[in-house]
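My current task is to audit a protein record that another person submitted. My question to you is simply how this chain folds and whether the tokens agree. This is what I was given:
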Amino acid sequence: MFKKILISEDHESINISVQKTLEDLKFDNFEYVYYCDDALSKAQKAIREKKPYDLLITDLYYEEDHHPQKLKDGRELISAVRQEQPDLKIIVFSAEHKSGIIDSLFNDYGINGYVRKARHDSKELKKAIASVYNNENYLSLDLKQEVKKLNNYEFTSYDITLVSLLSQGVLQKNIPVFLQNNNIKPNSLSSIEKKLNTLKEELGISNNEQLVAFCKDLGII
């Protein structure tokens, strides 16, 4: 099993809960911090001393307080640690539920496991640790289904631009002006209407308001 684990979690009660989970799994060599900057410092020191961590468990969002931090959240921590130690295994333990954001953590940040803070999350975390140790990415079944639903329709940058403009309150009839000013094609009103109608049909959505809400829930806008 993992020999050296680092926990980065800003809420004390949850930090203690993760420690308890590791103790239940008979781990005795783990350390914990409450700030991303401290997590990076510990990782760098461990590398210098040739005793690197082999697993990082981190939250995704960190609340700001009176301690200014260079690294603002889990994404920045993951990117910084990956530069120092590319082969480090990483599990994100977060309350985030948006499938678009979770999918991005695997595809863009290369995490190895994701556990959502919820009922029975201790059991899920134990499963994640075992899977990641065996070089298998871990995502709970319910979240897998949500991510699969997202990937059934691959949103293009053009799709996201259109929906983002709608979410900002731009009327559909005024979108062509924005696209033309930014040299984005196709930019005719008929092309935009056709694309939005196709999106709604593919996703089983009846109007633009529902389309915006759906994309916000996925975390793609």
